[in-house]
Amino acid sequence: MLRILSLVLLVSAFAGMSRPPAPPAELRLGLLKYNGGGDWYSNPTALPNLAAFCNDQLGTRFALDYGTVEVGSAELYNYPWVHMTGHGNVVFSSLEAENLRNYLIGGGFLHIDDNYGMDPYVRLALEQVFPELKLVEVPFDHPVYHQTFEFKGGLPKIHEHDGEAPVGYGLFYENRMVVFYSFQCDLGDGWEDEAVHNDPPEVRQAALRMGANLIEYAFEQ
Question: Going by C-beta distance under 8 Å and a sequence separation of 6 or more, which residues neighbour residue 127?
């Protein structure tokens, strides 16, 4: 059912210029709320800015106010693209893990962005969701890096923490990437209002472009 919903939303969100005007879409990006004490609510200005950028650059019609959705909620199925971030602990109950698994198998997409400090916790949580799968590094020639915007060298580096290169990891279910995990990157920080982190314009542009690629890739699957 989610795959059918996603196709309908895809037609609405990426309507061609030759088509007659459509009514404003109610499609929203989703922010995943999880338990464990981690600050899932980090970067409150990130998703509105990403939605606005996609509307401008990709011709989408996303609502600028995102939806907050809990891992175990049936409302998760209303969001074809969901973002997860934070700095600390992540805990999924068995029912939450099952719900997230069914959502992803059914056609949903999850982008996880380590805001620094959540890496060991999110890996354990993902093992609950897909115990049979392992996170693998997404190669630079993968389509996610070659959508409207080109990233021949993979993820852009937005914020420096440990002097390590950014890495994009993926979970692939039946050859479809259902989770993209950006590590040592801080994409979400780059999506925030300029005054929050004082990132240079070119850094924020790179972050927004990569975010747009993630959305475009997810909606084309």
Answer: none
Structure tokens at 210: 């990569």
Cβ(185)–Cβ(155) below 8 Å: yes
Q: What percent of the chain has pLDDT over 70?
A: 88
Where do we find the tokens 């969001």? Answer: 79
Inter-helix orientation angle 119-129/94-105, to 10°: 70
Structural domains in the chain, sorted by start: 2-220 (3.40.50.12140)
Cα dihedral: 91, 93, 94, 98 (round 10): -80
CA distances from 142 to 67, 137, 149, 193 (A): 29, 10, 13, 29
186 touches 113 (CB < 8 A): yes
Look at the alpha carbons of 20, 13, 221, 137 in this order and tell me if their dihedral is positive or negative: positive
Express each pLDDT in 119-133 by its tens digit.
999 999 999 999 999
Which residues are CB-neighbours of 41 under 8 A, at least 6 positions away? 31, 33, 68
pTM score over 0.85: yes
